[in-house]
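comment on this one:
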Amino acid sequence: MAETDIAGPSNAPSSENVTDGHKAVELKKELLTLVMEVIGDNQEDNDGNKVDHGVGNINKAIQALTALKELNLERKKRKLSSLYDHLDVPVEYRCPISKKLMRDPVVLSTRQTYDRPFIYKWLKDVHQMCPLAREVISHALLTPNHLVQKLIQQWCKANGQLPPPIMDHGEEVVITISDEDRLNGLLQKLLTLSDLKHAVKEIRLLTKSNHSIRPYFSEAADAIPQLLSPLSLFPYLSDHPDLQEDLVTILYNISLHGVNKKILSENPLVIPLLIDSLTWGTISMRANAAAALSVLSSLDKNKVLIGRAGALKPLVDLLVADHDHPSVMSDSTLAIFELCGLAENKKRLVSIGAVRVILQKMKKGRHVERLLYILAMLATHQDVIKELVKLRAVKFLLGIIRWSTSDFIKENCTTIVDLMCSKDGGVLEEVRKEEKTHGSISKLAKQGTESVKMKANSILDQIYGFDLNRIPS
């Protein structure tokens, strides 16, 4: 076998490690010299004059310490990355910049997902340009992508790997000049019809380009009521689609600031406006409305409010719509994912036909992995299991198990099938027939990951009982 085909770490140090080692030694020498000069007493130059090494050398020592810390951090990052290099990581779990498994996936304003430290460095070096969209970003705020994070964790588990640790990547807050006076002036203009639309558009641009202004909406008690004052001036906001889109986009922009999530949800006009905006208008407005609901739903209290307000039906309608627009699909999926973390919302999803819609979308081969993960989350609710049995979903799920090469997909399928078998004798009989023809579950019990084996054996226990000779050789 050729040397490059041998798996596992090499005994010889890489050129990067050698270079880093030399740099570390030089930095330590420099640091030691600087420290000795700083603490040395009564040092003199060649003319006998006392030399003060004070502030200048202290600053140099701090710079050397910082460089040494960054060097050690980079070495740790490379070491951790190499642990996953031998795995066939799905492209959607790789950072588009580093091509490595993401540790801390975050969403940029362009709705693209990256690994936090790499996109942060890119933005510092490339002047606020999205590497995939190739457009100037509206703001530098990085929003955690909890869905992708959980998908990566489950994929690592299915492949017998610990999820990659989140590295400390330093301070990432960009301080910008306050525009509070300008914003306050624009909010005042919302009270006059002549200036209203122009003022709303200006606020949209301001909250998009300068995320440091967003905390103002939680700090000023009347800011959000002022922002929503056009709703009372225009009872039929649908007659002014440009105004509604601007307002919805502002709500999304300011929802990205943590404290605003609670303040926004407590205003009785916000959630109804966002839900209404899911059902009509431009694709960008519907995407922004779904994105805002997704962000707000990260708070458990808001999951209750949004679910009870009726957001799930229009979100599911967006998910199954023919447009298949990437932003709308992503944002509606994320919102449903957040909301179905609450048991009462799972029940609502069944009542509005979400299970049927998800199955239909999957049968078209669209977003199978994400939708299957949501379906597996929903399947812990007994009403969802009843609906899956009613829709005869087991046949479709068994088909996925046969053709899929993804351990992640197989694990979610076996999770759902296991739950279905425990609730319905008809499902057990159908799985038993599958075993006689294809032996799909038996193969998983022998060849799957540890997690998949456990679930496959649970299914076989229900089919055959605890007969040790049940699995055909």
Observations:
- DSSP finds 25 helices and three strands in the chain.
- Residues 61 and 419 are 61 Å apart (CA to CA).
- Residues 54-82 form the longest helix (29 residues).
- Strands lie at 105-107, 113-115, 143-144.
